[in-house]
Design brief:
alpha+beta; 12% helix
């Protein structure tokens, strides 16, 4: 009987751990919620994070190396888009957006090329303590000046809510076909993934509960047109 009780307790704790996670499921034009996995590559680890800084899964999550049955969203440079989740983000940490131009089609691209960052949702310290943007959707715009073509559009939540433990990356990649921009820019700086994030980065090792008054988001600086 004791063994049964122990097994039930263990299962309950495991379920709690899974329910404490989240995943970016959909990508859409504008600010509306899209259809799950229509334009977002489907991962194979449910809503669990990636924690290995050397893993190729940091690009587009476990199971996201290729497009599979994922469609590619046609969008104009300068237009807004929205990533939506199954449940709101509730682990503290920055949210970042990256893009990487596919050599051919986004569906065939494994993300092994150069990535550039287009936005960070970093903490706001204006109220005397850190305030994080923790919502069920994140909207931004495609940079107006990037070349036309197909891209992976990557969103990342870096969860640093548990100082001393390994930080968690919640990642999804959408597939987009961009047109109509000025196309004159060569986005920089760029970084490879894995490689963009290091265990010694202050934004990776930060203790958000102790003397936390400033923060630098890991990865390259944000590219602007």
């Amino acid at each position: 009987m004791k063994n049964v009780v122990a097994l039930v307790a263990t299962a309950a704790l495991a379920a709690q751990g899974v329910s404490a996670h989240y995943i970016f499921q959909s990508l859409s034009k504008g600010t509306e919620k899209g259809t799950p996995y229509e334009y977002v590559r489907r991962n194979t680890n449910y809503n669990s994070p990636v924690t290995d800084l050397a893993s190729n899964d940091l690009r587009c999550n476990l199971g996201g190396a290729t497009g599979g049955n994922t469609s590619t969203l046609e969008i104009n440079a300068g237009d807004p888009f929205t990533f939506s989740l199954d449940t709101a983000v509730y682990h503290q940490g920055p949210i970042s957006l990256y893009m990487s131009k596919a050599p051919t089609t986004a569906a065939e691209y494994d993300g092994s090329g150069d990535w550039f960052k287009i936005n960070d949702w970093a903490p706001n310290f204006s109220g005397g303590q850190a305030s994080w943007t923790m919502t069920a959707s994140y909207s931004y715009t495609i940079p107006k000046c990037i070349p036309d073509g197909e891209y992976l559009l990557r969103i990342q939540s870096l969860a640093i809510h548990n100082p001393g433990a390994v930080p968690q990356f919640y990642i999804s990649c959408g597939q987009v076909s961009v047109s109509g921009g000025s196309g004159g820019a060569s986005p920089s700086p760029t970084a490879k993934i894995p490689g963009a994030f290091k265990a010694t980065d202050p934004g990776y090792t930060a203790n958000i509960y102790s003397n936390f008054h400033e923060y630098t988001v890991p990865g390259p600086s944000v590219f602007t047109c």
